[in-house]
Amino acid sequence: MNPTIKDVAQKANVSIATVSRVLHNLGGYSDITKQKVDQTIKELKYQPNAIARGLINKRTQTIGVLFPDVSSAFSSDLLHGIDEYLHNHNYSVVVCNTDQDGKRTLKYLQLLREKQVDGILFSSEVLKEEYYDLLEDMRVPVVLISSQTDFPNVPYVKVDDFQAAYDAVDYLVSKGHRRIAMISGTKGDPIAGTPRVEGYRKALEAHGIAFNSSYLTYGDFMYESGSRAMKSILKKAPEVTAVFAASDEMAIGALSTATQHGLNVPEDISIMGYDDLRLARMVNPPLTTVRQPLHDIGMIASEKLINMIESGEIAQSQICVHSIVERQTVRTIT
User: Fold this and answer.
1) pTM score, two decimals?
2) Which of 60, 95, 182, 273 has its CA at a distance of 20 to 30 angstroms from the CA of residue 252?
């Protein structure tokens, strides 16, 4: 017969309430008591009943996480931070792949509603009105990651995409580049597409460099689109000395295409990314990029969500600090 919480309490010589508080990290007991309860749990091989806990505190200890592309390196780096924080706070994660155009989003929100998740982390996608209405009906807190909205009571955690792109171009200009192309993300994307293009154009303008429409191409943040966009740039604008890509995956795709065309990076052409994925350190040469602290963003968003679940109060949105990471794909022109 499996041991119960009552068995743990009796053997540890504490109350059932104290065992419950230790299990839920609620405090109100000494370190010695916690050690005694933890040791007893190990000795008895006690496994808390998640269903029973849920009936008591009206929670399932599960969080829904929605990504447009779970397989992307961007999502992977974010998920590491999310899972680390939630695991350390006794929450499980249900990950949903909503697809690039969000066609599965409503379906997965309904699924998460049925699973009675305690909260939702909504990543890298526009929070449409139909999604917001459903979330309001679900009455669970939600935090946006790498996204933003004007809907009330929906905090977000992200970097300033306009400023980060501006700083990337400013960095390239400081290295002597003036013929700078850009591989943008999805055209018209209000979250990570348009703001980064605006940052690119504003930085050029600030340095007295005229915008050249043939220098701007669009991808979808993925490797293959970066490769295709680079082919277009080399064909239409071979005079370009530097390329700024709005994601590391596209930058790595551009790097591969440049190499296939017999170009040396950075001697013949400089390439700069955006994200600072782990992949950026692995390619040859290692990628110079704009770092957004994805692991930290995942942890911060998770912390805000848990605080909302436990306190019932709306968290404050947060803009995280970005930075330029210099590696080996940008050369100085003298």
Assistant:
1) 0.81
2) 95
